[in-house]
Design goal:
Blueprint (H helix, E strand, L loop, with lengths): L13 H16 L15 E4 L20 E5 L23 H13 L4 E5 L10 H13 L4 E6 L6 H7 L5 E5 L5 H7 L8 H14 L3 E8 L9 H7 L3 E6 L23 H10 L6 E4 L5 E4 L6 E5 H4 L1 H5 L6 H6 L8 H4 L4
Parallel strand pairs: 1-9, 2-3, 3-4, 4-5, 5-6, 6-7, 7-8
Antiparallel strand pairs: 1-2, 9-10
Helix pairs in contact: 2-3
Amino acid sequence: SEYWMQFSSVLASPVLLLQLCINTLRNILASVFLTVRTPGARWGTMSSVAPVGGGEGEGRAQDVMTPTSVNYHFTRKCNYKCGFCFHTAKTSFVLPLDEAKRGLQLLEASGMEKINFSGGEPFLHDKGEFLGKLVQYCKQDLQLPSVSIVSNGSMIKEKWFQKYGDDLDILAISCDSFDEATNQRIGRAQGRKSHVDNLHKIRNWCQQYKVAFKINSVINTFNVDEDMVENILQLNPVRWKVFQCLLIDGENAGEKALREAEGFVISEQLFQDFLERHSSVPCLEIVDGLFMRFLDCREGRKDPSKSILDVGVKEAICFSGFDEKMFLKRGGKYVWSKADMKLEW
């Protein structure tokens, strides 16, 4: 399984409001009084896929390994209602652009090579402009080898590719079924728009604007018997990432969850049967921002670390937990820069 880190924020919390008041007074009186730093409350969602050392406490910093690849869930809002969603819209807060950039710079300085922006739906906030500016910053200013996005595709316009496509290496579109009725049952739909037709349109834009195209699919009760071979081969993504539907307490399972995903979960045998039927697909890959905090999902829930904006990357990542062998086994390291893929556009 992947371990997630969370960069999020709590809107109008007493701690945050108190901090804003303190910061205002501090700026006015800085020339007279000695300033005392007060830690701020910051959230956001990052999933680190880089190995780290075990244990807790300040003495573990020297054992921390590089956060090579990071998933940054900077928003929880989404225009779809997928029944199995593990990152639901519990808050509408999005970290300000300057703070998000500062966190990304801290990660790059700690060794991050790949950043993946996700959500929620990342194109929903500011009609994709916020996302585009982050993509541009990571490629042009931080010069990261790989910048990627995971999206449901419903909000993407061609003009976004025209403005930011050069700085994007990979665009992954989530598609769980090639049958529209199935997509409707899952909740991966918006009105009567065709998710599948939109998928083909975005695939063509990716080819036109030289962005590597990828597909993510969550295998669940409603699509486990579907044969997707022909459709995947026709779309020809650089990777087809297949997930098994899992439960995360407080997100898609439990009393405080906004989703009830129990009805979407399939057995291990059914998942293996699906993989066997699709084993001929060469690009198949199997996978068992808000306050800028790492999330530890080892206990079936998301336990946040302190914010990297307050304590730095090394101290925060000590609490995230990571299985290096599993990271390498599932192909966590791969060719992720479009310049190195040598694709024929």
